[in-house]
Specification:
Blueprint lengths: L1 H17 L12 E8 L4 E7 L5 E6 L4 E5 L10 E8 L2 E10 L2 E10 L8 E10 L2 E7 L11 H5 L3 E2 L17
Parallel strand pairs: 5-10
Antiparallel strand pairs: 1-2, 2-3, 3-4, 5-6, 6-7, 7-8, 8-9
Length: about 180
């Protein structure tokens, strides 16, 4: 009987020995990750200071950021715009940062996109130039956390009217 219990006791100890899982994020330890996901080669994150003074979209690797926008000190309300979706059996949210001709929209959602209406999640980044999609990037690893809509109120970000079609999930980002 004791020999049969050893594998069950060893498993929790092995999990504890590995330590806590590290989140996939470009946010600093002093910041809150409102959204973060791995695209395979890069990471996209929405990072905010806990006091609500700064919010930034970041894309790149921990070693080198390709994009960090806006610069610190620029009010989030001047750069970001967001919205929420309500689906039968789910919902989601999106947040867009606009920089000149380019817009970077992060999204996360859950809906009944699976076979026989099974619930499935999606997350990704949509890059547009002059209003035209130039890249739909699916998150390869589950986002941590899903886009937290608390960011809208905390940073004074304007949002689309409920039920508006300001932004739709591109087909390339819907689960297959």
């Amino acid at each position: 009987m004791r020999a049969a219990l050893l594998p069950f006791l060893a498993l929790p100890l092995a999990v504890l020995a590995t330590g806590p899982a590290r989140a996939i994020t470009l946010c600093k330890p002093t910041e809150r990750a409102f959204f973060s996901c791995s695209t395979g080669h890069r990471i996209a994150s929405i990072c905010g200071m806990a006091d609500g003074t700064s919010l930034q979209y970041r894309y790149g690797t921990p070693a080198k950021l390709d994009i960090a926008y806006p610069a610190e000190g620029i009010p989030a309300a001047n750069v970001f715009f967001g919205g929420e979706w309500m689906f039968s059996g789910g919902g989601g949210a999106w947040l867009r940062a606009t920089r000149g001709a380019y817009s970077y929209t992060v999204l996360s959602a859950i809906g009944r996109w699976g076979k026989n209406g099974e619930g499935m999640t999606t997350a990704g980044i949509v890059v547009t130039k002059d209003g035209h999609d130039i890249a739909d990037i699916r998150c390869a690893a589950p986002e941590t956390p899903p886009l937290n809509t608390e960011v809208f109120g905390r940073y004074g970000i304007k949002t689309a009217a409920p039920g508006s079609d300001m932004f739709e999930i591109p087909d390339a980002l819907l689960p297959k």
